[in-house]
Prior knowledge:
Nonspecific Lipid-transfer Protein, Chain A; 5-stranded mixed sheet; 7 helices; 54% helix; 14% strand; globular
Amino acid sequence: MRGELLSKMAKELLTVAPKIAAKPLSIVPFSAKAKVLEQLLQHLLAEQIKEGELDFLIDSWVAVSVPDLQLSFEVSFGEHFSARPVTSPKVTFSANSSDLLLVVAGKEDPDTLFFQRRLCIEGDTEFGLEVKNLLLAIDLQRLPLAVQTLLDKLAKSMQWLQTTSKTDVQMI
């Protein structure tokens, strides 16, 4: 009985938490979200920028859609990163926030999510694979320690919730 209740609560939290997070995100102007995203990418990919590894992104737009957060945007790279609302991406990555969190934290492999149909890649898939490989090469150690710790704790909590929500409890 306790396990069944815990499983139900975990399922509910996985459903409700993104809806709660989506509310404040929806009132933040896109320009503010874009500026944060552009600066974050510029910082995290500084080494790749110096090495010219982002040249394949010039004049190409990559869209990211996070349906459970009602969040979507596209980014491109020229002399610096640019973000805008989705208009004409070369490739679109789409996944729920929980799965993206696990990928970013290095707790889940994007290829696994793709084959489980939890990560969708639409458009130029060859280009999408280049982008995916670039993102996997990001050194999260470049983030402040507090952000690294938060990301790790959130990802571990997400893993626990997902595991707990799938627990089949047999009645005795």
